[in-house]
């Protein structure tokens, strides 16, 4: 990560936009994961728009469960992920956003010939959060940024009040991101790989995993 880079929603949106084709994960009706590449996209500062044919599993899954993740490679070893919900835009706005996507991705117009245009459905992701992950930096950089009215849930390892300050966790950490502290040691979350080596090394079971 460049020292001058400010990781904010605009930076993350630009990262996804420049990635071009994104991996998109949804859930099928039985709860199992589904992932595919999507390129029928348009980016605004307050929303990411996605195009899908109404009959495709992608659209049907989003209509049943709007939760999704979009993942793009900004450059080798650097990723941006957006977690949120995708909801169909109002009927009166469908044509406007569909044409915008066709304008930016002309080959999509070929995928959806005129007589099939009404079959497509535009979804918008407005609220959620971004994760910026730079695995090339040493230590790694992990930044969470809210998008719209979304909140960032905590996910990772943290040191609890059971810590006895013995220091056994520090040499186990590949990112050297555990700081001494009083009354307990502390993990620099922005540099944490979330590998769990510290939790395994702790003789007191003082390091807990929170979230997924
Ligand atoms: S190994 Fe456990 S008890 Fe020791 S400093 Fe680390 S967190 Fe605290
Ligand atoms: S989870 Fe891994 S990277 Fe994070 S503090 Fe523990 S050992 Fe270090």
Strand content: 35-45%
Major sheet, described briefly? 8 strands, antiparallel
Radius of gyration: 21 Å
- Oligomer description: single chain
Q: Which cofactors or ions or other ligands sit in this model? A: iron/sulfur cluster
CATH topology of the largest domain: Pnp Oxidase, Chain A
Number of helical stretches of at least 4 residues: 5
* Poorly predicted residue ranges: none
| Total discrete domains | 2
Averaged pLDDT: 93
Which CATH top level class of the largest domain fits? Mainly Beta
Number of strands: 12
| Outline | elongated
Can you characterise this structure?
The chain has 212 residues and is α+β, with helices and mostly antiparallel strands. It has 2 domains: 9-147, Roll (Pnp Oxidase, Chain A), CATH 2.30.110.10; 156-210, Alpha-Beta Plaits. 21% of the residues lie in helices and 36% in strands. The protein is built from 5 helices and 12 strands. Strands 1, 2, 3, 4, 5, 6, 7 and 8 form an 8-stranded antiparallel β-sheet that branches. Strands 9-12 form a two-stranded antiparallel sheet. It has a two-stranded antiparallel sheet with strand order 10-11. β10 (178-179) and β11 form a beta hairpin. The radius of gyration is 21 Å and the shape is elongated. The two termini are 25 Å apart.
């Amino acid at each position: 990560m460049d020292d001058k880079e400010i990781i904010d929603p605009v930076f993350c949106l630009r990262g996804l936009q420049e990635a071009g084709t994104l991996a998109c994960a949804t859930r099928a009706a039985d709860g199992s994961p589904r992932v595919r590449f999507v390129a029928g996209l348009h980016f605004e500062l307050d929303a990411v728009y996605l195009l899908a044919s109404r009959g495709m599993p992608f659209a049907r899954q989003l209509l049943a469960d709007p939760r999704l993740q979009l993942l793009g490679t900004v450059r080798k070893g650097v990723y941006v992920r957006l977690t949120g919900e995708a909801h169909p835009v109002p009927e009166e706005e469908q044509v406007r956003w569909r044409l915008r996507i066709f304008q930016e991705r002309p080959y999509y117009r070929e995928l959806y010939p005129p007589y099939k245009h009404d079959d497509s459905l535009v979804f918008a992701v407005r609220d959620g959060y971004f994760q910026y992950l730079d695995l090339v930096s040493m230590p790694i950089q992990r930044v969470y940024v809210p998008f719209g009215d979304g909140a960032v849930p905590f996910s990772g390892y943290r040191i609890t009040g059971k810590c006895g300050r013995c220091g056994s966790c520090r040499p186990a950490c590949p990112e050297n991101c555990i700081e001494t502290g009083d009354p307990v040691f502390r993990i620099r979350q922005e540099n944490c790989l979330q590998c769990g080596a510290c939790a395994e090394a702790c003789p007191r079971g003082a390091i807990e995993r929170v979230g997924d």
